[in-house]
Amino acid sequence: MKKSTAALLTLVLGAALMLPAAASAASAASPTVGEIQSSVSFRTQPSTSSDVTRYLKQGEQVVILEEVNAYWYKAQDVNGAIGYISSNDKYVEIVAKGGDSGTAAKTGTIVASVSFRTGPSTDASRIRYLAKGEKVTITGQPNSYWYAVTAADGKQGYVSSDDQYIQVSGGGSAPVESPSSANATIIASVSLRTGPSTDASRIRYLAKGEKVTITGQPNGYWYAVTAADGTKGYVSSDDKYIAVTGSLPGNNPSDGNPNNGGGSGNHDALVERVIAAGMKYLGTPYEFGSDRDTTKTFDCSDFVRQAFREGANLLLPVDSRKQGDYVRGLGHVVTDWHQLKRGDIMFFMAYKGTKASAYAGVDKSDETITHCGIYLGNGQILHTYSIESGGVRTSVISGTHWEYRFLFGGSVV
Length: 413
Hints:
The chain is α+β, with helices and mostly antiparallel strands. It folds into 4 domains: about 5-100, SH3 Domains (SH3 type barrels); about 105-170, Roll (SH3 type barrels), CATH 2.30.30.40; about 185-260, SH3 Domains (SH3 type barrels); about 265-410, endopeptidase fold (from Nostoc punctiforme). The chain contains 5 helices and 29 strands. It has helices at about 5-20, 265-280, 300-310, 320-330, 400-405, and strands at about 30, 30-35, 40-45, 50-55, 60-65, 70-75, 80-85, 90-95, 100, 105-110, 115, 125-130, 135-145, 145-150, 155-160, 165-170, 185, 190-195, 200-205, 210-220, 220-225, 230-235, 240-245, 335, 345-350, 370-375, 380-385, 395, 405-410. It has a 6-stranded antiparallel β-sheet with strand order 24-29-25-26-27-28. A 5-stranded antiparallel β-sheet has the order 7-6-5-2-8, with helices on one face. It has a 5-stranded antiparallel β-sheet with strand order 15-14-13-10-16. Strand 21 and strand 22 form a beta hairpin. The longest helix is centred in the middle third of the chain and has 16 residues, at about 265-280. The chain is globular. The chain starts with a helix and ends with a strand.
Protein backbone atom coordinates (compact mmCIF):
# COMPACT_ATOMS: atom_id res chain seq x y z
CA MET A 1 0.00 0.00 0.00
CA LYS A 2 1.62 3.21 -1.20
CA LYS A 3 -0.50 5.75 0.68
CA SER A 4 -0.79 6.16 4.41
CA THR A 5 -3.95 5.00 6.13
CA ALA A 6 -4.86 8.58 6.97
CA ALA A 7 -4.43 9.71 3.39
CA LEU A 8 -6.59 6.90 2.09
CA LEU A 9 -9.27 7.59 4.67
CA THR A 10 -9.32 11.23 3.65
CA LEU A 11 -9.77 10.29 0.00
CA VAL A 12 -12.47 7.73 0.74
CA LEU A 13 -14.46 10.08 2.92
CA GLY A 14 -14.10 12.93 0.46
CA ALA A 15 -15.21 10.73 -2.41
CA ALA A 16 -18.18 9.51 -0.39
CA LEU A 17 -19.32 13.12 -0.06
CA MET A 18 -19.35 13.41 -3.84
CA LEU A 19 -21.26 10.21 -4.60
CA PRO A 20 -24.54 10.68 -6.50
CA ALA A 21 -27.78 10.81 -4.57
CA ALA A 22 -28.58 7.24 -5.56
CA ALA A 23 -25.53 6.07 -3.68
CA SER A 24 -25.88 8.29 -0.62
CA ALA A 25 -27.48 5.55 1.42
CA ALA A 26 -24.24 3.63 1.20
CA SER A 27 -22.06 6.52 2.39
CA ALA A 28 -21.61 4.88 5.79
CA ALA A 29 -19.44 2.21 4.17
CA SER A 30 -15.94 3.03 2.95
CA PRO A 31 -15.64 2.18 -0.76
CA THR A 32 -12.82 0.37 -2.52
CA VAL A 33 -9.97 2.67 -3.54
CA GLY A 34 -7.69 2.20 -6.54
CA GLU A 35 -4.44 3.97 -7.31
CA ILE A 36 -3.47 4.67 -10.92
CA GLN A 37 -0.17 2.99 -11.81
CA SER A 38 0.16 4.28 -15.36
CA SER A 39 -1.77 6.91 -17.36
CA VAL A 40 -5.13 5.42 -18.33
CA SER A 41 -8.26 6.53 -20.19
CA PHE A 42 -11.26 7.62 -18.09
CA ARG A 43 -14.15 6.77 -20.42
CA THR A 44 -17.89 7.38 -20.65
CA GLN A 45 -18.64 3.66 -21.15
CA PRO A 46 -16.85 0.32 -20.52
CA SER A 47 -15.50 0.13 -24.06
CA THR A 48 -12.40 1.35 -25.91
CA SER A 49 -14.71 2.79 -28.56
CA SER A 50 -16.40 5.14 -26.06
CA ASP A 51 -15.38 8.77 -25.51
CA VAL A 52 -12.40 9.60 -23.29
CA THR A 53 -13.40 12.12 -20.60
CA ARG A 54 -9.78 12.67 -19.58
CA TYR A 55 -6.64 10.74 -18.73
CA LEU A 56 -6.02 9.70 -15.15
CA LYS A 57 -2.39 10.23 -14.19
CA GLN A 58 -0.05 7.95 -12.28
CA GLY A 59 -0.56 8.46 -8.53
CA GLU A 60 -4.21 9.59 -8.76
CA GLN A 61 -6.71 7.69 -6.65
CA VAL A 62 -10.25 6.71 -7.56
CA VAL A 63 -13.18 5.08 -5.81
CA ILE A 64 -14.11 1.77 -7.46
CA LEU A 65 -17.91 1.74 -7.63
CA GLU A 66 -18.39 -1.50 -9.55
CA GLU A 67 -16.48 -4.23 -11.38
CA VAL A 68 -18.49 -4.20 -14.60
CA ASN A 69 -16.78 -7.25 -16.10
CA ALA A 70 -13.34 -8.84 -16.24
CA TYR A 71 -11.95 -5.85 -18.13
CA TRP A 72 -13.55 -2.69 -16.68
CA TYR A 73 -14.17 -0.84 -13.43
CA LYS A 74 -16.81 1.82 -12.94
CA ALA A 75 -15.00 4.49 -10.92
CA GLN A 76 -15.27 7.98 -9.45
CA ASP A 77 -12.36 10.42 -9.38
CA VAL A 78 -11.59 12.95 -6.65
CA ASN A 79 -13.51 15.64 -8.55
CA GLY A 80 -16.71 13.58 -8.38
CA ALA A 81 -16.74 12.57 -12.06
CA ILE A 82 -17.89 9.02 -12.79
CA GLY A 83 -16.51 6.94 -15.65
CA TYR A 84 -14.90 3.65 -16.61
CA ILE A 85 -11.27 2.51 -16.50
CA SER A 86 -9.44 -0.65 -17.47
CA SER A 87 -9.19 -3.11 -14.58
CA ASN A 88 -5.79 -4.31 -15.80
CA ASP A 89 -3.40 -4.15 -12.83
CA LYS A 90 -0.77 -2.40 -14.94
CA TYR A 91 -3.12 0.62 -14.87
CA VAL A 92 -4.79 0.44 -11.46
CA GLU A 93 -3.91 -1.16 -8.12
CA ILE A 94 -6.47 -1.71 -5.37
CA VAL A 95 -4.99 -0.06 -2.28
CA ALA A 96 -8.00 -0.15 0.09
CA LYS A 97 -10.87 -2.62 0.19
CA GLY A 98 -14.40 -1.45 1.01
CA GLY A 99 -15.65 -1.83 4.55
CA ASP A 100 -17.79 -0.29 7.26
CA SER A 101 -16.85 3.15 8.49
CA GLY A 102 -18.76 5.53 10.67
CA THR A 103 -16.15 8.26 10.61
CA ALA A 104 -17.32 11.80 9.85
CA ALA A 105 -16.01 13.80 6.92
CA LYS A 106 -12.64 15.49 7.48
CA THR A 107 -12.14 19.21 7.89
CA GLY A 108 -8.94 21.19 7.99
CA THR A 109 -7.76 24.29 9.79
CA ILE A 110 -5.18 26.47 8.05
CA VAL A 111 -2.25 26.91 10.43
CA ALA A 112 -0.12 29.14 8.17
CA SER A 113 -1.01 31.20 5.11
CA VAL A 114 -1.04 28.92 2.07
CA SER A 115 -1.84 29.19 -1.65
CA PHE A 116 -5.32 28.04 -2.70
CA ARG A 117 -4.88 26.82 -6.29
CA THR A 118 -7.03 25.70 -9.22
CA GLY A 119 -5.17 22.39 -9.51
CA PRO A 120 -2.90 20.07 -7.47
CA SER A 121 0.32 21.70 -8.70
CA THR A 122 2.44 24.75 -7.97
CA ASP A 123 2.05 25.52 -11.70
CA ALA A 124 -1.74 25.87 -11.26
CA SER A 125 -3.22 29.35 -10.94
CA ARG A 126 -3.56 30.76 -7.43
CA ILE A 127 -7.18 31.54 -6.53
CA ARG A 128 -6.12 33.39 -3.40
CA TYR A 129 -4.23 32.84 -0.15
CA LEU A 130 -6.00 30.99 2.65
CA ALA A 131 -5.33 32.75 5.94
CA LYS A 132 -4.31 31.23 9.25
CA GLY A 133 -7.41 30.07 11.13
CA GLU A 134 -9.64 29.51 8.08
CA LYS A 135 -11.65 26.28 8.01
CA VAL A 136 -11.90 24.09 4.91
CA THR A 137 -13.64 20.81 4.06
CA ILE A 138 -11.32 18.16 2.61
CA THR A 139 -13.10 16.47 -0.30
CA GLY A 140 -10.27 14.37 -1.68
CA GLN A 141 -6.54 13.82 -1.98
CA PRO A 142 -5.30 13.47 -5.59
CA ASN A 143 -1.79 12.56 -4.36
CA SER A 144 0.33 12.67 -1.20
CA TYR A 145 1.19 16.35 -1.65
CA TRP A 146 -2.22 17.99 -2.14
CA TYR A 147 -5.73 18.10 -0.69
CA ALA A 148 -8.83 18.94 -2.71
CA VAL A 149 -10.79 21.29 -0.44
CA THR A 150 -13.84 23.51 -0.28
CA ALA A 151 -13.37 26.82 1.52
CA ALA A 152 -15.97 28.46 3.76
CA ASP A 153 -17.18 30.64 0.88
CA GLY A 154 -17.90 27.55 -1.25
CA LYS A 155 -14.86 28.01 -3.49
CA GLN A 156 -13.24 24.71 -4.48
CA GLY A 157 -9.53 24.25 -5.06
CA TYR A 158 -6.34 22.60 -3.83
CA VAL A 159 -3.92 23.23 -0.97
CA SER A 160 -0.66 21.66 0.13
CA SER A 161 -1.19 18.68 2.46
CA ASP A 162 1.96 19.58 4.41
CA ASP A 163 1.03 19.80 8.11
CA GLN A 164 2.94 23.07 8.42
CA TYR A 165 0.03 24.60 6.47
CA ILE A 166 -3.05 22.57 7.41
CA GLN A 167 -4.21 20.61 10.45
CA VAL A 168 -6.73 17.84 9.76
CA SER A 169 -9.57 17.18 12.19
CA GLY A 170 -13.05 15.62 12.28
CA GLY A 171 -16.27 17.28 11.20
CA GLY A 172 -17.77 18.25 7.88
CA SER A 173 -20.41 20.21 6.07
CA ALA A 174 -23.39 19.34 3.88
CA PRO A 175 -23.13 19.66 0.09
CA VAL A 176 -24.17 23.00 -1.36
CA GLU A 177 -27.62 22.92 -3.00
CA SER A 178 -28.03 23.83 -6.66
CA PRO A 179 -29.11 27.44 -7.19
CA SER A 180 -32.69 28.08 -8.28
CA SER A 181 -31.35 30.12 -11.22
CA ALA A 182 -29.73 27.05 -12.80
CA ASN A 183 -30.60 26.79 -16.48
CA ALA A 184 -28.40 23.88 -17.58
CA THR A 185 -27.41 20.37 -16.48
CA ILE A 186 -24.06 18.66 -17.03
CA ILE A 187 -24.66 15.38 -18.84
CA ALA A 188 -21.04 14.17 -19.07
CA SER A 189 -18.00 15.17 -17.02
CA VAL A 190 -16.48 18.34 -18.48
CA SER A 191 -13.72 20.82 -17.62
CA LEU A 192 -14.68 24.07 -15.90
CA ARG A 193 -11.99 26.50 -17.06
CA THR A 194 -10.87 30.04 -16.21
CA GLY A 195 -11.37 31.19 -19.82
CA PRO A 196 -13.14 30.15 -23.05
CA SER A 197 -10.18 28.14 -24.36
CA THR A 198 -8.57 24.74 -23.86
CA ASP A 199 -5.40 26.68 -23.02
CA ALA A 200 -7.11 28.24 -19.98
CA SER A 201 -6.48 26.67 -16.56
CA ARG A 202 -8.88 23.97 -15.43
CA ILE A 203 -10.64 24.94 -12.21
CA ARG A 204 -12.09 21.45 -11.75
CA TYR A 205 -14.25 18.89 -13.50
CA LEU A 206 -18.01 19.37 -13.43
CA ALA A 207 -19.66 16.02 -12.78
CA LYS A 208 -22.62 14.48 -14.58
CA GLY A 209 -25.85 15.75 -13.00
CA GLU A 210 -24.44 19.04 -11.67
CA LYS A 211 -26.60 22.13 -12.23
CA VAL A 212 -25.05 25.33 -13.58
CA THR A 213 -26.27 28.77 -14.57
CA ILE A 214 -25.28 29.89 -18.05
CA THR A 215 -24.50 33.61 -17.87
CA GLY A 216 -23.14 34.20 -21.36
CA GLN A 217 -21.66 32.68 -24.52
CA PRO A 218 -18.40 34.28 -25.70
CA ASN A 219 -18.39 32.22 -28.93
CA GLY A 220 -20.02 29.24 -30.54
CA TYR A 221 -17.96 26.74 -28.56
CA TRP A 222 -18.11 27.93 -24.93
CA TYR A 223 -20.59 28.95 -22.25
CA ALA A 224 -19.78 31.28 -19.36
CA VAL A 225 -21.32 29.55 -16.32
CA THR A 226 -21.69 29.75 -12.56
CA ALA A 227 -21.58 26.41 -10.74
CA ALA A 228 -23.76 25.49 -7.79
CA ASP A 229 -20.96 26.41 -5.36
CA GLY A 230 -20.68 29.91 -6.85
CA THR A 231 -17.54 29.22 -8.86
CA LYS A 232 -17.54 31.05 -12.20
CA GLY A 233 -15.85 29.72 -15.31
CA TYR A 234 -16.32 28.39 -18.83
CA VAL A 235 -17.46 25.02 -20.21
CA SER A 236 -17.78 23.56 -23.68
CA SER A 237 -21.16 24.27 -25.24
CA ASP A 238 -21.15 20.89 -27.02
CA ASP A 239 -24.47 19.19 -26.26
CA LYS A 240 -22.72 15.96 -25.39
CA TYR A 241 -21.50 17.72 -22.22
CA ILE A 242 -24.28 20.12 -21.26
CA ALA A 243 -28.07 20.30 -21.69
CA VAL A 244 -29.82 23.66 -21.56
CA THR A 245 -32.92 23.34 -19.37
CA GLY A 246 -34.02 26.97 -19.01
CA SER A 247 -33.89 30.33 -20.71
CA LEU A 248 -30.50 31.78 -21.61
CA PRO A 249 -29.32 35.40 -21.28
CA GLY A 250 -30.37 37.76 -24.08
CA ASN A 251 -28.05 38.78 -26.90
CA ASN A 252 -26.25 41.81 -25.56
CA PRO A 253 -22.59 42.76 -25.36
CA SER A 254 -22.25 41.93 -21.69
CA ASP A 255 -23.39 38.38 -22.34
CA GLY A 256 -20.63 37.85 -24.87
CA ASN A 257 -22.87 35.97 -27.32
CA PRO A 258 -21.45 34.78 -30.65
CA ASN A 259 -23.53 37.34 -32.56
CA ASN A 260 -21.34 40.01 -30.98
CA GLY A 261 -18.03 38.66 -32.29
CA GLY A 262 -15.47 36.07 -31.24
CA GLY A 263 -13.70 33.48 -33.31
CA SER A 264 -11.09 31.62 -31.22
CA GLY A 265 -13.50 28.72 -30.85
CA ASN A 266 -12.86 27.37 -34.36
CA HIS A 267 -9.16 26.92 -33.60
CA ASP A 268 -9.93 25.37 -30.21
CA ALA A 269 -12.39 22.94 -31.76
CA LEU A 270 -9.84 21.88 -34.40
CA VAL A 271 -7.20 21.30 -31.73
CA GLU A 272 -9.56 19.16 -29.69
CA ARG A 273 -10.50 17.10 -32.74
CA VAL A 274 -6.82 16.50 -33.53
CA ILE A 275 -6.06 15.42 -29.97
CA ALA A 276 -9.16 13.22 -29.82
CA ALA A 277 -8.08 11.59 -33.08
CA GLY A 278 -4.64 10.92 -31.63
CA MET A 279 -5.89 9.69 -28.26
CA LYS A 280 -7.98 6.93 -29.81
CA TYR A 281 -4.74 5.28 -30.96
CA LEU A 282 -3.24 4.98 -27.45
CA GLY A 283 -1.36 1.70 -27.23
CA THR A 284 -1.07 1.26 -31.02
CA PRO A 285 2.30 -0.49 -31.59
CA TYR A 286 5.40 1.40 -32.68
CA GLU A 287 7.16 0.57 -35.94
CA PHE A 288 9.99 2.60 -37.43
CA GLY A 289 9.16 3.49 -41.03
CA SER A 290 5.54 2.43 -40.57
CA ASP A 291 3.19 2.20 -43.55
CA ARG A 292 1.59 5.64 -44.03
CA ASP A 293 -1.52 4.05 -45.52
CA THR A 294 -2.53 2.00 -42.44
CA THR A 295 -3.11 2.67 -38.74
CA LYS A 296 -1.93 -0.74 -37.50
CA THR A 297 1.44 0.69 -36.43
CA PHE A 298 3.01 4.16 -36.24
CA ASP A 299 6.35 5.82 -35.97
CA CYS A 300 6.43 9.34 -34.50
CA SER A 301 5.83 11.39 -37.65
CA ASP A 302 3.28 8.93 -39.04
CA PHE A 303 1.28 9.22 -35.81
CA VAL A 304 1.33 13.05 -35.82
CA ARG A 305 0.39 13.05 -39.50
CA GLN A 306 -2.56 10.71 -38.90
CA ALA A 307 -3.92 12.78 -35.98
CA PHE A 308 -3.94 15.97 -38.05
CA ARG A 309 -5.29 14.23 -41.11
CA GLU A 310 -8.26 12.86 -39.16
CA GLY A 311 -8.84 15.76 -36.79
CA ALA A 312 -8.14 18.79 -39.00
CA ASN A 313 -8.29 17.39 -42.54
CA LEU A 314 -4.67 18.58 -42.87
CA LEU A 315 -2.09 16.41 -44.65
CA LEU A 316 1.37 17.03 -43.18
CA PRO A 317 4.70 15.90 -44.72
CA VAL A 318 5.61 12.24 -44.20
CA ASP A 319 8.64 12.59 -41.87
CA SER A 320 9.53 14.60 -38.77
CA ARG A 321 12.22 16.75 -40.41
CA LYS A 322 9.92 17.84 -43.21
CA GLN A 323 7.16 18.44 -40.67
CA GLY A 324 9.61 20.64 -38.75
CA ASP A 325 10.39 22.61 -41.91
CA TYR A 326 6.66 23.00 -42.50
CA VAL A 327 6.07 24.40 -39.00
CA ARG A 328 9.09 26.72 -39.28
CA GLY A 329 7.73 27.97 -42.59
CA LEU A 330 4.56 29.14 -40.85
CA GLY A 331 6.73 31.51 -38.82
CA HIS A 332 5.32 31.01 -35.32
CA VAL A 333 7.71 28.66 -33.52
CA VAL A 334 8.88 28.79 -29.89
CA THR A 335 12.01 27.24 -28.35
CA ASP A 336 10.76 27.26 -24.74
CA TRP A 337 8.31 24.39 -24.33
CA HIS A 338 6.51 26.27 -21.53
CA GLN A 339 5.25 28.70 -24.20
CA LEU A 340 3.60 25.97 -26.26
CA LYS A 341 -0.16 25.77 -26.64
CA ARG A 342 -2.31 22.67 -26.58
CA GLY A 343 -2.18 21.01 -30.00
CA ASP A 344 1.22 22.40 -31.02
CA ILE A 345 3.69 19.99 -32.62
CA MET A 346 6.94 19.48 -30.69
CA PHE A 347 10.29 18.57 -32.28
CA PHE A 348 13.29 16.96 -30.57
CA MET A 349 16.97 16.23 -31.15
CA ALA A 350 18.68 12.85 -30.68
CA TYR A 351 18.80 11.20 -27.25
CA LYS A 352 22.07 11.75 -25.34
CA GLY A 353 21.07 10.67 -21.83
CA THR A 354 18.59 11.25 -19.04
CA LYS A 355 20.43 14.12 -17.32
CA ALA A 356 20.42 17.79 -18.28
CA SER A 357 24.22 17.79 -18.14
CA ALA A 358 24.31 15.44 -21.17
CA TYR A 359 22.90 18.28 -23.28
CA ALA A 360 24.98 21.11 -21.81
CA GLY A 361 26.75 23.19 -24.43
CA VAL A 362 24.74 21.74 -27.32
CA ASP A 363 23.96 24.25 -30.08
CA LYS A 364 20.39 23.20 -30.80
CA SER A 365 20.20 25.36 -33.91
CA ASP A 366 22.56 22.85 -35.57
CA GLU A 367 20.82 19.71 -34.30
CA THR A 368 18.80 17.41 -36.54
CA ILE A 369 15.19 16.57 -35.74
CA THR A 370 14.82 12.93 -34.71
CA HIS A 371 11.40 12.91 -33.02
CA CYS A 372 8.07 14.74 -32.88
CA GLY A 373 4.82 14.66 -30.91
CA ILE A 374 1.70 16.66 -30.01
CA TYR A 375 1.67 18.92 -26.94
CA LEU A 376 -1.33 18.22 -24.68
CA GLY A 377 -0.85 21.07 -22.23
CA ASN A 378 -0.18 20.57 -18.52
CA GLY A 379 3.39 19.51 -19.31
CA GLN A 380 2.52 16.39 -21.30
CA ILE A 381 3.16 15.14 -24.82
CA LEU A 382 1.19 12.64 -26.91
CA HIS A 383 3.54 10.59 -29.11
CA THR A 384 5.11 7.24 -29.94
CA TYR A 385 8.81 6.45 -29.91
CA SER A 386 9.67 2.79 -29.29
CA ILE A 387 8.36 -0.75 -29.09
CA GLU A 388 9.50 -0.99 -25.46
CA SER A 389 7.51 2.10 -24.41
CA GLY A 390 4.25 0.45 -25.49
CA GLY A 391 3.52 2.43 -28.64
CA VAL A 392 1.33 5.54 -28.63
CA ARG A 393 1.33 7.06 -25.14
CA THR A 394 1.57 10.25 -23.13
CA SER A 395 4.77 11.36 -21.36
CA VAL A 396 5.72 14.03 -18.84
CA ILE A 397 8.11 16.64 -20.22
CA SER A 398 9.48 18.57 -17.23
CA GLY A 399 12.68 17.17 -15.71
CA THR A 400 13.00 14.41 -18.32
CA HIS A 401 15.10 13.96 -21.43
CA TRP A 402 12.13 15.22 -23.43
CA GLU A 403 12.67 18.66 -21.89
CA TYR A 404 16.40 18.57 -22.54
CA ARG A 405 16.01 17.35 -26.16
CA PHE A 406 13.30 19.85 -27.14
CA LEU A 407 14.27 21.99 -30.13
CA PHE A 408 11.15 23.98 -31.04
CA GLY A 409 7.41 23.70 -31.57
CA GLY A 410 4.45 25.48 -33.06
CA SER A 411 0.91 25.32 -34.37
CA VAL A 412 -0.21 24.18 -37.81
CA VAL A 413 -3.96 24.91 -37.37
